[in-house]
From TrEMBL:
The keyword 4Fe-4S does not apply. This is 4-aminobenzoate hydroxylase. GO terms for biological process: secondary metabolite biosynthetic process. One of its GO terms (molecular function) is oxidoreductase activity. It holds the Pfam family FAD_binding_3. The chain crosses the membrane at residues 7-25. Keywords: FAD, Flavoprotein, Membrane, Oxidoreductase, Transmembrane, Transmembrane helix. InterPro entries: FAD-bd, FAD/NAD-bd_sf, FAD_monoxygenase. Residues 168-359 form the FAD-binding domain. The keyword Flavoprotein applies.
Amino acid sequence: MSQDRRVRVAIVGAGIVGLTFAIALNEFDRDHKFAIDIYEATPELSEIGAGINVWPRTWEILKQFGLEDTLTPCFDHAPDLEPRIIFGVRKGDQKDGFKVHDIIGNGGALRIHRADFQRSLLKHLPLPGTAATKMNSLCAVHLSHRLINYSYTNAGPITLNFEGKPSTTCDILIGADGIKSSLRPMFLNRLPNPQRYDKFREPVWSGTVAYRGLVSREDLEKVYPGHRILDHPGLMYTGKSRYTVMYPVSGGNFINVVAIVHDTSKDTTVWKGPWKTDVTQAEFFEQYTGWDEEVQALIRCVKQPTKWALQSLNHLDVFAKGRVFLMGDSAHAMLPHLGAGASVGIEDAYILASLLTHHSTPRVLSTHYINHLASVYNTIRVPRAISMAKSTIDTGYLCNLEAPIYEGYKPGDEIPMDLLVEGARTIERNWSWTTTNASEDRWRAEELLGRGGEMAML
Ligand SMILES: Cc1cc2nc3c(=O)[nH]c(=O)nc-3n(C[C@H](O)[C@H](O)[C@H](O)COP(=O)(O)OP(=O)(O)OC[C@H]3O[C@@H](n4cnc5c(N)ncnc54)[C@H](O)[C@@H]3O)c2cc1C
Ligand SMILES: *[C@@H]1O[C@H](CO)[C@@H](O)[C@H](O)[C@H]1NC(C)=O
Ligand SMILES: *[C@@H]1O[C@H](CO)[C@@H](O)[C@H](O)[C@H]1NC(C)=O
Ligand SMILES: *[C@@H]1O[C@H](CO)[C@@H](O)[C@H](O)[C@H]1NC(C)=O
């Protein structure tokens, strides 16, 4: 099969979602229809941050992408559907914290170090000379390629312009370039009524920052022998306008710490300054003055904390038009309170790879057909992403004890146990999506594709 007969797919952004999409397309591409080019702005591939949660729903998808053998050894426990603690919730903003409720989910959370996750994905790209199990699609990675513009005529290829690099072309363009996407504003500018989309160009700050860091097990054992997290799958310490989660990664050798601080008066404002900065331990510690010693001990062990401004996108209602598709954070960056951002992006990859490789999708894609396919992608993905993004906001308010049920309680006030438990139970319900099955979305998408496909091909 010569390369010029293949559908040329350009993926902009080699984050978790862009890489996963390339793997998905290759895995499903039984007829060897695709040639994939991945363009990444940075000169090397690296994943910042520490831990990430993968959920049973996402695991089902990753298995279908052929990643089971590579990823399984990286998780904190073998994937199964046993009821497991996702987070043990404790009241934390007082000297003697106490247990509130264990949030349980079938299969729990599969916790993995981001660097391990990315390494596993890179192993599965169908690049010449790598260990990819299948080589269905052709694939190339182009580092130091920052997309700055694209253009197309009706039937012809899409031309891609890069900063300081020669232009290239493709048939299908995927924006997987994250929350600060350059592709998203260009995509919005090319929609019929671009002014309507002004509020989707720039991210919005949530009034929330996250302090993040890794703690070595050894250090914690010295500072606080027998600390609860040393023998626990994950803990969440809640308090007024603050909460902290911690969980072991890398076979328990490290504890991943994320500590949230919320200023409600700054909700939906614009963050000024760098998104991520190194901060002193003293600054981090000060935010948690008066908290449970279990939290303070952990903070004392974070050698180099970083502070992240937590931003998200307004709920965009179109991810695809014609030959251009947004996925992952570039389409629907959401707050981290459900540990769901990458998972929802992986679902985008799953649905789009299924549609593009479906037996009814022809090798030569007419304008009508690709428009139809894009509308199916929108129909399936937009409502799902918006509902998840809304849920992350609600969950944040519950974790920070700022949800409507906690109205009237000021910092330092005692909150009745039944309200704390009610809040934790709502969070638990909000995590029930993790055990649903994304195969149903795939079937629905394929059914819609088939239903309109014949007409669209005319
Ligand atoms: C504190 C925190 C905790 C989280 N925890 C979880 C969790 O437990 N589970 C979960 O599922 N999600 C979690 N998330 C969300 C998750 O990290 C993101 O949703 C996910 O990493 C987004 O992946 P992406 O590939 O869409 O974007 P990114 O990872 O941002 O990748 C985008 C890539 O595009 C490149 N790029 C940008 N512009 C251009 C350009 N113009 N040209 C070429 N390349 C470009 C960038 O360099 C980058 O490599 C968390 C987020 C935070 C902040
Ligand atoms: C980007 O491409 C579009 C479409 O061809 C063109 O109108 C626009 O001027 C270009 N923008 C830049 C900054 O080059
Ligand atoms: C999360 O909780 C909020 C508040 O109870 C609710 O409105 C929302 O539908 C829930 N989301 C999910 C996914 O369960
Ligand atoms: C999801 O559905 C698929 C397809 O029917 C099935 O193979 C898989 O076992 C299901 N997964 C779960 C967790 O129920």
